[in-house]
Write a structure and sequence with these properties.
single chain; 633 residues; alpha+beta; 6-stranded antiparallel β-sheet; 33 strands
Length: 633
C-alpha cells in the first residue's frame, strides 16, 4: 500500500495495483494500470442498418421491438464479419449498431466508490467511425478505426443512480459504427474493398474489434503517461497528463524498481504546476562502475529487462490516484549504415505479421493468443516483427516488451491521395504514435508502405511532400526512433532505406546485395519491383539498407487451395526449407544489409506463404525453420 499524508489531515490509504510488468496480459492498457477495471466484452445486442434508418428510428435510446428490426447477439469484441462473433456475415454492411446494459455489478468491478467518483468508458478500437450513447445521452463521436477513445460518463450515471444508496440501476449503452467498404480515403490497411478477399487483401473488420471497458478514477487523475530514457545517460523522464483541476498543493511522484526484485532504482517528486508535467528520475545504477552497470538494466530481445514504475498523484488530505506502469531502458538509432540497439549494431531479423486470425479477423481469439504469437515468432528464430498495415492491440506490445521482441509499428494505409485521405491518416497515425511511444519493443515507425495512397510519388511533388510530412511529424512526436517514410521503395525522407524484393533465387539475392558497389547500383537505379528507391530530393546519406519484404514461399502441406497465393512455390517440406535457407544464405552473404523481414509469419486466407498455417501450426518442424532463419539451431 502507498499512503500519502498531509501534516494535519487524517491519513487515507490509496490502493496500489500489482507492478505493471507482472500483469497477466489481459489489461487493455498495460502501461497505465489501476487495481480495478471491468471489461464489457461478451454478448451484446446487434443490428445491421443497411438502409441507415437507425438514427431516425430512435435506436440510440436502446433497441425496442417496435423498431421493427431484428435483434441478434454478437460476441464483442469480435467483428461481425468473423465466425467468432456469432454473426459471420462478411458482405457489405456499412452501418452496424450495438447495445448492452451496464449494471451496478459492472460499476463495482470497475472500482466505483465515493473516492473514485468519476467513471470512464473506454473503447480499444472501433472501425471506422463510432457514435456512442448512454441512457439516450449522446456521449460523442470518434473517427479512426485503429485508435482508442474514451468518454467520462459520470454525469449520465449520476442522473439516474444514487451511489451512496447503492441503487441497482441499469444503464443502456448504444454504439453506432459506420465503415463504408468503398471509401478509399479511410485508413483501412489490408481490408478488402471487394466483397470477397482477393490477392493480398482480406475480410473486412467493421465496428467494435478491441475491448470495451469501464474504469473508475478520482476527481483528479493520471490521464496519460509517456516514458523516455536518456541513453547514454542515467535519467528516466516521465511526462504525465492530468485530468481534473489541480491545486497548488497537488504533488506527483514517480518511483522505479527492477521488475525482478525490490531494489529501488530511483524516485522523484514535484509539485504539479498545471494539467501536465514532467518528472526526471536519476537511475544511479547506470552511473556505477564507470558506466559498466548499463548491462544490468538495458532492454534487449535477449535480455528483456523491464523497470516497474509507480506514479502517485497526491493531495495533503491523503486522497489521490495511483497507477502502475513500466518502461524499458534502451535506445535505438542509425549510424554508418547500421541499425543500433543500445548504441551497438544489431542485426534485425524480422518477420512480416498480418495480425489476422481465421475465425476472428483482426481481433485476437483471446488475450493469451498475444503471448503465444510473440513466443512463436521467437521460437522461429526471429528477433523482430513488422506488424503489417495494422495498429496492433497494446496487449501484443506488452508481451513483446515482456518477452523481448523488436516491433516495427506501421499505419494501416489509405488508398487515395486526397485532402480527406491526408487528414484522416495523419490524425490517426499521430494518435497511434502517442498511444505506443513508451513501449520499448517498438524500434521503428512506418507511416506508409509501398506507395499506398501516393502511387505517383515518383513524379508528384505534392505526394512527396505528404510522405516527408508523415515522416517529419512522426519525428516531431518521437525523435527517439528511426522513421521510414515509405517502406519498400520510393523513399522521400527515410532514416532506413528499405527494399521489397521477392526474387526466388538465393544466388540472385546474393549478387543484388553483395557489396558497396551493388548498394550504389541499387540506390541509384530502379529497385527490384521496377520502382525507384529514392525520389524527389532524397539522397543517400549512408542510411542502413534493409530487405524488409522477401521470401513469400507458397507451401500447402496437406491442402490444395485453388486461390492459393505466394511469390514462389515449394513442392514438399524439404524443398520448402531449402528455398528459405537459400534466400537467407543470400542475405547473409551481403556486406551491407542491416536487417531483413521475411514474408510471412502465418498463412492468411488465400495467402499461403506463411511459415505457419493460419491456425499457427508449423509447416515443417520448427527447428528446421529456425535453422534456416538464424543459421543455427
Amino acid at each position: 500500500m502507498t499512503t500519502l499524508r498531509g501534516e494535519e489531515a487524517a491519513p487515507r490509504t490509496l490502493s496500489v495495483p500489482e507492478p505493471a510488468s507482472r500483469q497477466d496480459g489481459t489489461h487493455p492498457r498495460p502501461q497505465l494500470v489501476r487495481p480495478a477495471w471491468a471489461d464489457l466484452d461478451g454478448p451484446w445486442s446487434f443490428r445491421h442498418d443497411d438502409g441507415d434508418e437507425g438514427l431516425g428510428a430512435g435506436w440510440s435510446a436502446g433497441f425496442r421491438p417496435e423498431h421493427g428490426a431484428t435483434d441478434r447477439t454478437i460476441t464483442v469484441p469480435f467483428p461481425p464479419e468473423s465466425v467468432a462473433s456469432g454473426i459471420d456475415e462478411p458482405g457489405f454492411h456499412p452501418v452496424v449498431w450495438y447495445a448492452r446494459s451496464i449494471s451496478a455489478e459492472d460499476l463495482e468491478r470497475a472500482g466505483r466508490s465515493a473516492d473514485a467518483s468519476r467513471v470512464l468508458l473506454h473503447f480499444g478500437a472501433v472501425d471506422y467511425r463510432a457514435t456512442v450513447w448512454l441512457d439516450g445521452v449522446r456521449l460523442g463521436e470518434h473517427e479512426g478505426g485503429h485508435t482508442p477513445f474514451s468518454f467520462d460518463v459520470t454525469h449520465v450515471l449520476d442522473a439516474s443512480t444514487d451511489v451512496d444508496a447503492g441503487t441497482d440501476t441499469t444503464h443502456t449503452l448504444v454504439v453506432r459504427a459506420e465503415d463504408d467498404p468503398h471509401d478509399v480515403t479511410q485508413p483501412r490497411g489490408k481490408q478488402d474493398w471487394h466483397e470477397h478477399p482477393h490477392v493480398i487483401w482480406y475480410r473486412r473488420t467493421t465496428g467494435i474489434w478491441q475491448t470495451v471497458w469501464l474504469e473508475a478514477v478520482p476527481p483528479v487523475s493520471v490521464a496519460a503517461l509517456r516514458w523516455e530514457t536518456e541513453f547514454p545517460g542515467s535519467v528516466v523522464r516521465g511526462t504525465v497528463r492530468i485530468a481534473g483541476r489541480v491545486t497548488a498543493d497537488t504533488t506527483l511522484s514517480v518511483s522505479l524498481r527492477h521488475e525482478d526484485g525490490d531494489e529501488d532504482l530511483g524516485s522523484a517528486s514535484v509539485v504539479v504546476p498545471a494539467g501536465a508535467t514532467t518528472v526526471d528520475v536519476v537511475v544511479p545504477v547506470a552511473r556505477q562502475t564507470n558506466g559498466q552497470a548499463y548491462d544490468e538494466i538495458v532492454w534487449t530481445p535477449e535480455t528483456p529487462r523491464l523497470i516497474d514504475a509507480t506514479v502517485v498523484l497526491g493531495h495533503p488530505d491523503g486522497s489521490g490516484d495511483v497507477v502502475a506502469s513500466y518502461l524499458g531502458f534502451r535506445s535505438v538509432a542509425v549510424d554508418r549504415g547500421a541499425f543500433l540497439l543500445n548504441d551497438r549494431p544489431y542485426d534485425v531479423r524480422s518477420v512480416l505479421n498480418q495480425g489476422y486470425w481465421p475465425d476472428s479477423n483482426l481481433t485476437a481469439p483471446s488475450p493469451a493468443a498475444f503471448r503465444r504469437e510473440v513466443e512463436l515468432i521467437k521460437e522461429l528464430g526471429f528477433t523482430a516483427t513488422r506488424i503489417h498495415q495494422k495498429i496492433e492491440d497494446p496487449r501484443f506490445l506488452f508481451w513483446a516488451d515482456r518477452l523481448g521482441l523488436l516491433v516495427w509499428g506501421e499505419a494501416p494505409g489509405a488508398y487515395a491521395f486526397t485532402p480527406t485521405a491526408v487528414q484522416r491518416l495523419m490524425r490517426e497515425w499521430m494518435d497511434a504514435v502517442e498511444r505506443d511511444v513508451s513501449h520499448p519493443c517498438i524500434v521503428t515507425w512506418v507511416p506508409a508502405n509501398e506507395s499506398w495512397g501516393v502511387q505517383h510519388i515518383a513524379h508528384e511533388p505534392a505526394q512527396q511532400a505528404y510522405a516527408r510530412a508523415l515522416a517529419d511529424v512522426t519525428r516531431a512526436l518521437d525523435p527517439s526512433r528511426p522513421v521510414i517514410s515509405n517502406d519498400g521503395w520510393e523513399h522521400a525522407a527515410s532514416d532506413i532505406l528499405s527494399v521489397h524484393d521477392y526474387e526466388a533465387s538465393g544466388e540472385v539475392l546474393a549478387a543484388t546485395y553483395a557489396d558497396d558497389a551493388a548498394r550504389t547500383r541499387l540506390l541509384a537505379g530502379m529497385g527490384p519491383a521496377g520502382r525507384r528507391i529514392l525520389v524527389g530530393d532524397a539522397e543517400d546519406h549512408g542510411q542502413p539498407v534493409m530487405l524488409t519484404e522477401f521470401g513469400g514461399v507458397n507451401y500447402q502441406p496437406g491442402a490444395d487451395r485453388d486461390d492459393a497465393w505466394g511469390y514462389s512455390v515449394a513442392v514438399d517440406g524439404d524443398d520448402y526449407v531449402d528455398r528459405i535457407t537459400a534466400l537467407y544464405d543470400g542475405i547473409r552473404a551481403s556486406s551491407f544489409l542491416a536487417g531483413s523481414c521475411y514474408t510471412q509469419f502465418t498463412d492468411t486466407l488465400q495467402e499461403t506463404n506463411g511459415l505457419l498455417t493460419a491456425e499457427r501450426e508449423p509447416k515443417v518442424p520448427i527447428e528446421r525453420i529456425r535453422r534456416a532463419v538464424a543459421g543455427r539451431d
